[in-house]
Amino acid sequence: MAWTVADIPAQDGRLAVVTGPTGLGYEVGLALARAGAEIVLAGRSPGPAAQSLDRIRAQVPGARVRFETLDLASLVAVESFANKLLAESRAIDILVNNAGVMMPPERKTTRDGFELQIGTNYLGHFALTARLLPLLRKGRARVVNVASIAANAPAAINFDDLQWERSYSPGASYGQSKLAMILFGRELQRRSAAQNWGITSIPAHPGVAATDLIDKGPGAQSALGRLSRLLPFLRQSAARGALPLLEAATDPSALPGGYYGPDGFRGMRGAPKLVEPPRNARDEATARRLWDVSERLTKVRWE
Fold first, then answer.
1. Which CATH number is associated with domain 12-298?
2. Could you tell me the residue ranges of all domains in the chain?
3. Catalytic pick among 122, 174, 259, 260
């Protein structure tokens, strides 16, 4: 039988940090709150997050859920957020690296000068996970990096122009950022096993989930926006899209370093299952090189 939220084990006494408080982040937070976890929803704006908190509290009376400000497009903000949690000294049991931006039509940069998609979707999460490492080790945490079917071929890591300074492509840049999340998640698992960090890292993707990413990125009137409205059967709800993320985060039998996503046509929708990572995400040499480059760019060092 297909895995569902009913299969989430009791999460009482556990702390989950979820980046991106709306869309998939809201659904992940809601499901974990229902299972008894304490939730930190982290994002840039308190407005949309407040709506998510209200909705979770309305459906889960007594839910322990709060919002913390986190701008993944700023390494200073990432450090500030991490320092706040480090000061609390509470073990983190689940970290879901979910927040992201999708295909802005024109090239934009983060506060640190990174191209917006690689900087927000990947480098911000790389730095965040590194800075939270003591709390993740303390909780023997599950770390879930949220990827996308956009990470499939022809997506690749463009080491010669990682920041898309020479020629910007919204789709190719987005695919690179999500491929980086899979490579990072699988390399994190290898390093955790080799260095006895006690962390289990399992990337996952939601298929084509009905969230506001398209509206906020390429726009509702873009070709991608119009296609999503004309072919709604290719999409699934955000709640369904969150299931692979939740299985990776909570299923005791989930494969460390595996990859979870929907089982339907081209991974667009369906029940969650262990799936084959994209070909370019299986190259360990690329993963190691990306890790080294990311340490230099973010100026964070892992133990």
1. 3.40.50.720
2. 12-298
3. 174
